[in-house]
Amino acid sequence: DTGVSQDPRHKITKRGQNVTFRCDPISEHNRLYWYRQTLGQGPEFLTYFQNEAQLEKSRLLSDRFSAERPKGSFSTLEIQRTEQGDSAMYLCASSLSALNTGELFFGEGSRLTVL
Amino acid sequence: GIQVEQSPPDLILQEGANSTLRCNFSDSVNNLQWFHQNPWGQLINLFYIPSGTKQNGRLSATTVATERYSLLYISSSQTTDSGVYFCAVVEYGNKLVFGAGTILRVKS
């Protein structure tokens, strides 16, 4: 059983460029989540998918951010026109059931540095 | 929304010592998880513990949901226990809300 996989692990980009992160959840998990973590803080919720449907989005997810899960398997998180404030660790997680009855499992994260 | 407070914010231990980390939350919760974030940034699941007590090796956790707190015990600490420990709760729906974490440093 492979865990949650994220790619790339590290990304350095210049301000104004677009970046895309990919997440492959645990295979039987139909729920997928994106979180963002800045230095010294706990992870903050960005968005949640159940199968291919994006069911919840945080106010942190500005118009420059878009997430997709087209076939209910892997997901992508795209950031357009990156800003220095976007520098953070982007964490993907998946779960088999709703969080009020089950555990959330995280990937290793994708660390973004915007110069 | 729900508030999650963790204490202490920082903790330095000598190898072999025991410690207790605390997590307080401001409202009723449906789920509580403890995580260890390793130096490479990955969040490792320690316990899924909405109530009661669980043990896993040198670690154990207790959640008293009616009093809105959870405790994580680390016994006979090792240098590999160093890192950040997070408590996270589900208030409703599908959003896990994290505390700010406890930074643990275990010295040899």
Q: Whole-number radius of gyration of chain A?
A: 13 Å
Order of helices and strands of chain A: EEEEEEEEEEE
Shape of chain B: globular
pLDDT under 50 segments of chain B (min length 5)? none
Give the N-terminus to C-terminus distance of chain A in angstroms: 37 Å
Biggest sheet character of chain A: 7 strands, mixed
Number of strands of chain A: 11
Instruction: Name the biggest interface.
Output: A-B, 28 and 24 residues
Helix and strand content put the structural class of chain B at mainly beta
Quaternary arrangement of the chains shown?
Answer: heterodimer
Q: Kindly report how far apart the N and C termini of chain B lie.
A: 41 Å
Helical region count of chain B?
Answer: 0
Helical residue percent of chain B? Answer: under 10%
Instruction: Give a count of the beta strands of chain B, DSSP E runs of length 2 or more.
Output: 11
Average per-residue pLDDT of chain A, rounded, comes to 93
Contiguous runs where pLDDT drops below 50 for at least 5 residues of chain A:
none
What radius of gyration of chain B results from the CA coordinates?
Answer: 13 Å
| Element-by-element helix/strand order of chain B | EEEEEEEEEEE
Set down the secondary structure blueprint.
The complex is a heterodimer of chains A (115) and B (108).
Chain A: E1 5-7, E2 10-13, E3 19-24, E4 31-37, E5 44-50, E6 53-57, E7 65-68, E8 75-79, E9 88-95, E10 105-106, E11 110-114
Parallel strand pairs in A: 2-11
Antiparallel strand pairs in A: 1-3, 3-8, 4-5, 4-9, 5-6, 7-8, 9-10, 9-11
Chain B: E1 4-7, E2 10-14, E3 19-25, E4 31-37, E5 43-48, E6 52-56, E7 59-64, E8 69-74, E9 83-90, E10 96-98, E11 102-107
Description:
- The complex is a heterodimer of chains A (115) and B (108).
- Chain A contains no helices and eleven strands.
- In chain A, 37% of the residues are buried.
- In chain A, strands 2, 4, 5, 6, 9, 10 and 11 form a seven-stranded mixed beta sheet that branches. In chain A, strands 1-3-8-7 form a four-stranded antiparallel beta sheet, with no helix packed on it.
- Chain A is an all-beta fold and 115 residues long.
- Chain B has strands at 4-7, 10-14, 19-25, 31-37, 43-48, 52-56, 59-64, 69-74, 83-90, 96-98, 102-107.
- In chain B, the strands form two sheets. In chain B, strands 2, 4, 5, 9, 10 and 11 form a six-stranded mixed beta sheet that branches.
- The chains are: A mainly beta (115), B mainly beta (108).
